[in-house]
Design brief:
The protein is of the alpha+beta class. It has two domains: about 270 residues, no CATH class; about 130 residues, no CATH class. Helix 2 packs antiparallel against helix 4.
Length: about 425
């Protein structure tokens, strides 16, 4: 089958929370550079930060509600990142058992589109499904990934371990903003020391970042962001939190209301039935076979890379507003590469591409007519858009020279599963 369109390159989507909210963490602009880390000690320490209060687990079907209800609640709030607002709501039994729904509003002036994303976390399992605004999330399959590898905290760990790339000028808020948002919605007790506050306090506090987060920033030589946190308590329970995370050029603003403390148990968070979980989220087998917008064309995988995703994008998911195929090339799942080499390819019809840009193909790349500096190549009646990482730009002509007709079956057979 295939991952939802806006989380389609999930192995390279970085933090899924960030993808759902349209936030930072390397997810902006398609998220290809983010990369998922292989499991490491650092990743386990970071993403398992809440283990001080809850034991890790797999599927949760037991009735082990917590005596301390500070980590069991319903949450509802908003996250604003660089002016873009998303609504978040859900139930949290503890930091590793929760069900959340994200609704990104989108922005007409910039052309960004809203999304609806649902997450269910059960120990190390994270199940996700997502659609663009206006589509029904109930009509798409869930896909499953390892929560320790793709949470915001896990991605931060991958950066600190050198297993995922970070921009040279990235700021502290870009690095830890998503992780702090994740904690505020799912484990606020790690940021707010309730025992140090009066039972009915309304206070501005100076939260301490988790040690592992500080260590990651130190390893990356990135200054800690400014974190401002205001909380309201009633009877010793956290009822509301407002947080602002900022560094030069980046601002997160978060508001969360907490209710039903202690009334959520781990067995209230359940996995969807197996019939609703996509067994092959790295490829859209049926939709690729049915794709008839134009002839399929693909390059040979650049040296050191493999095809890790082949998906059909619906019209709302594309800049041009018409269906097309997305191919993602990256390091093999068992590779130790840092992820700075990757390539995303979009395959669309010439009428579709010309509807957005009618300029002629007057340049040449790899022996084919091209335009836009070689990033759009015309192969017969098919337009191929090439989106390489910086490390692959110098190889663009050689990559274009390998473009050739292909079939849906050939693409599916070539994809290297990352699950």
């Amino acid at each position: 089958m295939g991952a939802p369109a806006n989380l389609r390159s999930s192995r390279y989507a970085g933090a899924l929370l960030a993808g759902a909210l349209g936030l930072g963490m390397g997810c902006a602009g398609g998220g290809g550079a983010a990369g998922l880390a292989e499991e490491s000690t650092t990743s386990t320490e970071l993403d398992g930060a809440a283990d001080d209060t809850v034991a890790a687990g797999g599927d949760s079907t037991d009735d082990d509600s917590r005596d301390d209800d500070s980590s069991a609640f319903r949450a509802e709030g908003t996250v604003t990142y660089q002016g873009f607002e998303s609504g978040v709501s859900g139930v949290v039994a503890d930091a590793e058992h929760y069900s959340l729904r994200y609704e990104s509003r989108g922005d007409e002036s910039s052309g960004s589109q809203g999304t609806v994303t649902e997450q269910v976390r059960l120990g190390t399992r994270l199940l996700v499904r997502s659609v663009f605004a206006g589509e029904s999330v109930d009509e798409v399959l869930w896909f499953e990934v390892d929560a320790d590898l793709v949470s915001a905290l896990g991605y931060l760990a991958a950066l600190s371990a050198g297993e995922a790339p970070a921009s040279d000028d990235i700021g502290g808020a870009d690095l830890v903003g998503d992780a702090l948002v994740e904690l505020l919605f799912t484990a606020p007790e790690l940021l707010v020391d309730l025992d140090s506050l009066e039972p009915d306090a309304a206070a501005d506090i100076d939260p301490e970042l988790p040690d592992a987060m500080v260590e990651a920033l130190d390893q990356l030589r990135v200054a800690e962001p400014s974190v401002e946190l205001t909380v309201e308590l009633e009877g010793g329970r956290l009822m509301r939190a407002e947080m602002r995370v900022s560094s030069p050029g980046t601002v997160y603003e978060v508001e969360v209301d907490y209710t039903d403390h202690g009334e959520v148990e781990t067995n209230d968070v359940v996995a969807p039935p197996s019939s609703e979980i996509d067994a092959t989220p790295w490829a859209d087998e049926e939709r690729l076979a049915a794709f008839a917008e134009t002839d399929l064309v693909a390059p040979t995988a650049p040296a050191g890379l493999v095809l890790v995703g082949a998906h059909v994008l619906s019209a709302p998911a594309t800049v041009e507003g018409c269906p097309q195929v997305q191919l993602d090339y990256g390091s093999a799942p068992d590779s130790e590469a840092t992820g700075d080499r990757f390539l995303t390819v979009f395959v669309l019809s010439k009428p579709c591409a010309n509807g957005a840009d009618p300029s002629p193909f007057e340049e040449t790349l790899g022996g084919f007519p091209s335009r836009r500096g070689g990033y759009e190549v015309l192969v017969g009646s098919t337009v191929v858009q090439l989106a390489p990482s910086d490390a692959l730009v110098a190889e663009l002509d050689a990559i274009a020279a390998t473009l050739a007709p292909t079939t849906a079956d050939a693409l599916v057979a070539t994809v290297v599963p990352w699950g």
